[in-house]
Design a protein that fits this description.
Length: 495
């Protein structure tokens, strides 16, 4: 009898993916027809190991900034090792262990409110608490009379900053491993698709820029829960993810399309209800302890103008007339971005409803989140992590992932060089090369959008469908509403 790790019915990328097949020549060639898996090194364990190695490489990449405690304003950009974490430790009051949503006038007079959703604020506060404990519980009263800049330059605080980043990194590493486990466990026939996540250069480079990986883990968990036929848990994870970053909310649109096609409203209602309840419960402590501070995130995002990575920044700089009545002011960008995004969502809905087979949740989720990022007024480099679990499941093809992620890596380098002033023309003016990086990044994303749309409208091109076993389920579980069999669906067709 073979163990689960020995089963030969899994889809092996070295057999079905041309790029993976070519790359495997350097390590012995594709998996043989009669090959058996290792008894202990199951696909999930291999994925987890490679994810850990990839994350560790990302930590090493930030090493030069860590050694300087992010004090060097030039090397953080030239070495591309910038992170928000060290600056927020002092800049948002964590050096004094202030609750992020306190309304204390003295605290608010010295420190800005955390401009992130509550999930990130809670995590950062917990990391600060561990940092203080690990630093011997320093007396914070001695810091009350000093400025933020002074605190950041003090040796004891610098030590705490480094420890704070380490503690945050360990927490994010756990979240990343959890996300990898969800992705590798989602489809029994295709665990190796998660390698595209585990070996992602975008993951290594962006993992420690901010705390976005917390929402990534919740998103991957929601995909896994839906594939397991657990709409309630799906909703809980969507609610938790939305309380950490807004974008997991958009998965509800994909669930709506799937449930409408299957004529089953109950799974969607359960998922929606669970998402609302979990979001409210997670936000309650912040709102009850500081309603005004809780609202800062919403005001901040509404009032900000065109920012890094967005097409609006390119248009703004091309116009180069910020005082003009025709300039892209914040309210103008808000209006147009939501109008375009709304139109995009309608298009995704129509594509999903007209598809010959019910699209998979990852496909619909990727299309919606990609549309949001393409028209958003800020597209920070780490936002690629939002797309990563959706993209690797929506289009599990090595060639397409390499094309897309190469544009993200190029942009990653350019955005730091741009902020460091290294791309500025000698004669002055805006850095046109940075515009090219933004447009190339958008082109890579649109390329993957086009491939996913083709897979939805022509399912015979979808790798997750055409490799199904003849005697197995006709449909991937993530395209079926819970409560309906994967083998008796009315629209299930072997492709």
């Amino acid at each position: 009898m073979t163990t689960d790790g020995d089963r030969d019915d899994r889809v092996h990328p070295t057999r079905e993916d041309p790029v993976a097949t070519a790359l495997s020549e350097g390590i012995g060639g594709p998996m043989g027809v009669h090959g058996r898996g290792h008894r202990w090194w199951t696909p999930v364990r291999v994925v987890l190991l490679l994810t850990a190695l990839c994350f560790a490489l990302g930590m090493v990449q930030k090493g030069s900034c860590y050694a300087q405690t992010w004090q060097n304003g030039t090397s953080r950009y030239s070495h591309m090792c910038y992170s928000d974490m060290p600056y927020l430790y002092t800049g948002r009051g964590f050096a004094e262990l202030n609750w992020p949503y306190t309304g204390d006038p003295q605290v608010r007079a010295r420190y800005e409110v955390m401009e992130y959703p509550v999930g990130i604020s809670y995590f950062a506060y917990a990391a600060a608490w561990v940092t203080h404990w690990g630093s011997g519980s320093p007396d914070v009263t001695e810091r009350f009379g000093h400025s933020v800049d002074y605190l950041f330059s003090e040796a004891p605080v610098r030590n705490e900053v480094r420890l704070f980043v380490v503690v945050s990194a360990l927490g994010l590493a756990a979240a990343t491993l959890l996300a990898a486990w969800f992705l590798a466990s989602l489809d029994r026939l295709r665990p190796w698709d998660a390698l595209l996540f585990a070996l992602s250069p975008a993951l290594a480079l962006n993992a420690l820029v901010n705390w976005d990986l917390l929402a990534v883990a919740a998103t991957a968990g929601a995909l896994w829960a839906w594939a397991r036929g657990k709409p309630g848990l799906t909703g809980v994870l969507i609610g938790l993810g939305t309380a950490t970053k807004l974008y997991p909310l958009f998965l509800l649109g994909g669930l709506l399309v799937i449930c409408l096609r299957d004529r089953r409203a109950d799974p969607f209602v359960r998922a929606l209800s669970a998402a609302i309840v979990s979001w409210v419960l997670v936000n309650a402590p912040a709102y009850l302890t500081g309603a005004a501070e809780w609202k800062v995130f919403w005001h901040f995002n509404s009032d900000r103008g065109a920012d890094l990575g967005s097409i609006w920044l390119v248009l703004q700089q091309i116009k180069d007339t910020p005082a003009s009545p025709f300039a892209f002011q914040a309210h103008t960008i808000n209006t147009w971005s939501w109008l375009v995004f709304g139109t995009w969502c309608i298009g995704v809905f129509l594509v999903g409803m007209r598809a010959p087979l019910t699209p998979r949740l990852a496909q619909l989720g990727y299309l919606v989140v990609a549309g949001f990022l393409l028209v958003n007024k800020v597209y920070s480099p780490q936002y690629v992590l939002w797309l990563l679990p959706l993209a690797v499941l929506a289009r599990p093809r090595w060639r397409d992932q390499l094309v897309w992620q190469s544009t993200e890596v190029f942009y990653f380098a350019c955005v730091w060089w741009y902020l460091g002033g290294f791309l500025a023309p000698a004669a002055g003016g805006d850095a046109g090369f940075y515009w090219i990086a933004i447009l190339l990044r958008m082109a890579g994303e649109l390329f993957l959008v086009a491939m996913v749309v083709r897979d939805v409208l022509h399912p015979e091109h979808d790798p997750a469908r055409h490799a199904r076993l003849p005697d197995g389920p006709d449909e991937p579980a993530e395209s079926v509403a819970p409560g309906q069999s994967t083998t008796t669906r009315s629209n299930a067709v072997a492709v």
